[in-house]
Amino acid sequence: MLVNGAQSDTSFQRKTGYVQQQDVHLSTCSVRESLEFSALLRQPSDVPREDKLAHVEEVIRLLEMEEYADAIVGIPGEGLNIEQRRRLTIGIELAAKPELLLFLDEPTSGLDSQTSWTICQLLKRLAHSGQAILCTIHQPSAILFQQFDNLLLLAKGGKTVYFGEIGQNSATLIRYLETNGGTQCPPGANPAVWMLEEIGAAPGSDTTVDWPRVWRDSPEHQSVRAKLQKLRESRTTIGVTPHMHTLRQPSNRAYASSFLQQWWLVQKRIAAQYWRSPSYIYSKVCLTVGSSLFIGFSFYNAPNTIQGLQNQMYAVMMLLSMFGQLSEQIMPQFIDQRDVYEARERPSKMYDWKVLMLSNLAIEIFWNTLMAVVAYFCWYYPIGLYQNATSTHEVAPRGCLMFLFIWAFMMFTSTFTHTLIAGMDSADSASSVGNICYMLCMTFCGILVKKSSLPGFWIFMYYVSPFTWLASGLLSTGVANAEIECAPNEYVRFLPPAGQSCGSYMASYISLSGGYLVDPHNTEHCQFCPLSNTNDYLSTVNIRLEDRWRKFALVLVYIVFNAVAALAVYKLVRMPRRSKV
Q1: I need a surface site. Which of 235, 323, 326, 502 has the fewest CB within 10 A?
Q2: What's the whole-model pTM score?
């Protein structure tokens, strides 16, 4: 395709405006913010910011949107009405100040007659102000048809039937069709409907005239070709100087803005989207606070008995069970951004796809950090895990590491969720896959089923599961290096052999297996606790405190891997592939 006599380059999409048939907008942005976003990203980078914003105000005035310029777009049925949304769709393209053309795909489709007339009058004002407009329209009324200056009429198969002026009351078009074999246009008929019937494009109509051939042999066609050749020669004469080529070279970039500017503007918009989505914020806070408090007070001040240690382990596993709910909250936020990007912003070369992914990953860092703080205080302290570090005077360092593990869990959930939703159309499908992955990770993490009890084939899942390192890191940091005191019903009671004390009888067993006696010197009633230290309990599930920082580093590796995988999945699944020439 030639543009101004030259082959189109990578900047063509950015230099043209395309108004889609559907009005796709981010519901949390205001009208002015939507226009400014388009202007700042799509106008050339050498244009001052003040000039871009001034152009936005001019667009608002031109489209008569002053009354609702600061209104939130909202969803269809709430917020802007149909006409206002269509004006905004047109305005977003005008804010980009397209250098070449403004394309519109059936701008009156789905609108009532009054709104259609208003939109056509708006397009006419834009044309009179110097904006080149190319518009497709389907079966317009006679009065709307008269608003257009020139017509490209296509038959089935995309073959040209007519290209030229419509004329006053469609006189030029009617004269051409009647002269070349068409029937006479009835008085009062809609010329748009009549011409479709004449060329056999209307439902139930047929024609015996080969209109594409008639056009190729017509004087009008020769006149158009001569005019195009003249324009091409004029363009070649004017536009080949080295100076002009040098000036045009920087504008041939695919994107008008730098990567850093794209990221900053997109990040600001996503931050506003999250802040203006109270349902997301409330649900995330309520889930984190409610679940953490429920777990914390269900195992309030869990003692270091055998059952108490089981309760502390269950508290850790229940904290990890928030994965599914946290994941389902993130997906709709991302889908809203992705739908707008893929429908309008990617085709118009507004910003890079990597900016979309990185911005969505980055915004979750703030919310995950905030939720980690909330979960830390609502979960860690009510259970009393901090008390296990008092004997070794490590309350502060182990408390900090516990917070880091909770934060890492939140970040893993977020990045893994983005990996899932990056390649799937619906949140339901991604959520189903996520729940399956969660069940596998939880089953093979070595807590519910010990590593030694796993079938040989499934041992690899123990090492692959990120919850192996998360759960063991949380347990070792929260439970290790504390004394165990069995509850009365947990002691093993027995009678020692005659002539031996409890201590002498159990000495060899305790040296091998651990545990302690309540009264080693007793010779009649022995009470034995199978565990004496929480480290003995952790060793039964292959957990050691010395590995806590290594496990935290492994979780960070999973987070980075998920982030890279999210970008790779989106690139492979969602990005259109370049056609091979």
Answers
A1: 235
A2: 0.84
